[in-house]
Amino acid sequence: MTDAVIVDAVRTPIGKGKPNGTLAGVHPVDLHAHALRSLVERTGVDPARIDDVISGAVGQIGEQSMNTARWAALAAGLPESVPAVTVDRQCGSSQQAVHFAAQGVIAGAYDLVIASGVESMSRVPMGSQVAGRDPFGTQVAARYPDGLVPQGISAELIAAKWGLSRAQLDEFSAESHQRAAKAWADGKFAGEVAPLKAPGPNGVPADVTTDETVRPGTTPEILAGLKPAFRADVWEQRFPDLGWHVTAGNSSPINDGAAALMITSSETAKALGLRPRARIHSFAVVGDDPLYMLTGVIPATRKVLARAGLSVGDIDAFEVNEAFASVVLAWQAEIGADLAKVNVNGGAIALGHPLGGSGARLATTLLSVLEQTGGRYGLQTMCEAGGLANATIVERLD
Questions:
Q1: Per-residue model confidence (pLDDT) at position 302
Q2: DSSP code for 243
Q3: 184-192 contacts: CB < 8 A, separation 24 or more?
Q4: What is the value of pTM for the model shown?
Q5: Is residue 353 annotated as a catalytic residue, yes or no?
Q6: Annotated catalytic residue, options 91, 99, 245, 281
Q7: Interhelix angle for 325-335 vs 166-185, to 10°?
Q8: Which are the contacts of 143, defined by CB distance < 8 A and separation ≥ 6?
Q9: Does 281 participate in catalysis according to the annotation?
Q10: What segment(s) does the record annotate as region Disordered (predicted)?
Q11: Is 383 designated active site?
C-alpha cells in the first residue's frame, strides 16, 4: 500500500494578539504565504508539481474568507495551476488538513501536497464568523435543552470532573513557559521556525524571530494571583459546584501564526530526491460530548493507538494542544502518559494557539522533538469546539 510521508515542515513565529503583537500588522494571507513559500524553498521542489494546498482556518470571514488558502498559495508565488482549499474542523483544522493530505496520497489522488493552516486572531477576532447569529438552529437546541457553553466553561467543568486544583493547573502552565523558554534558549526551535519581517504594532518594521507569548519568568506563584476568567452569575447559577480555577494564565492566549507541511509518498520522495522525515503512521477523528467539548482528545488517543496497534508506552513524544491546562491534565489522568514526554518544548499556553494553524504547528514541533530525542513514534492530539478531536501518530524515519 502507498504510504504518506512528511518531507519537511515549517512554521512562522507565533505573535501576540493585538494591540502589542508584532504580527498584528500582517494580513493573514501574507502570513500564511510566508509559511508556504518557506516550505517550498526548503524542499526545493518544483511548485508546479504540487497537486493541492489543503489548509485550515477557523475564522473564515473578512480577511480570512473566500477560501483563504487559494489567496495564500497565489501570494506565495505558487503557479496558478496549483489548487487550494480551506477546511474548518475548528481548532483541529490544520491537523485535519494533514489527515486529508495523507489520505489523498495513500489513495493515489495526490503525488505531492501541502497541508497547512493559519489564524490571525488579531485581525479576525475569535468568534467573529458567528456575527451575532445563532449557529445551532432549533433542533440542536431541542437536543440540548439546558444549552451548550463556551469553551472556558467546558474547561471549568473538566477541572471539576477530574478533581483538578487551581494549583495543579498553574503548576502545569508555569512548566509550559519554562520548557518553552529553555527550548528557545537551547536552539530547539531554530530548525522549524521561518523568521519574517513585519510592520510591528506601531508600523515600525521589525524582524520577528521568536514566539512572543513565552514568559520565562512565569511561576505558579505569579499565576496564582490571576482572577478566574470565565466566572459570571449566569454560570454560577447553572453550575454552583464549579471551583472557578481557569484563568488567562492557565489558558492559551490570543495569537497570530501559520505552519505548513509537505506530504508525499516514499516513492515520489525518492523520485524527486527528497528525504522523508517521518511517516504518517495512523490517524483518527472522534466526536464527544459537546457540553464538555474538549475531552475528545481522550477517545481520539485511544482510537488512534488501537488503529496503530501501539500502546501508550510505545509513544516517545506527545504533543497535546494546551487550549487549557485542564484539558491536558484530564487527558493525562485517563491515558496515563508520562508528562515528561508531553509538550517537551512547551505547549500552547506558552507558545500560543493560532487556532487554524495550531494542528500544523504541533506536527512541525513533534517532528523536531522526535529528531532531537531520537524517538521513533510521536502522537499529537487536539481538542476542538463542538466535542471533536483529531489524533495522529507519526513515525520518525532515519
A1: 98
A2: -
A3: 184/210, 184/211, 184/214, 188/345, 188/368, 188/372, 189/345, 189/365, 189/368, 191/368, 192/9, 192/10, 192/11, 192/364, 192/365, 192/367, 192/368
A4: 0.97
A5: yes
A6: 91
A7: 100
A8: none
A9: no
A10: 195-217
A11: yes
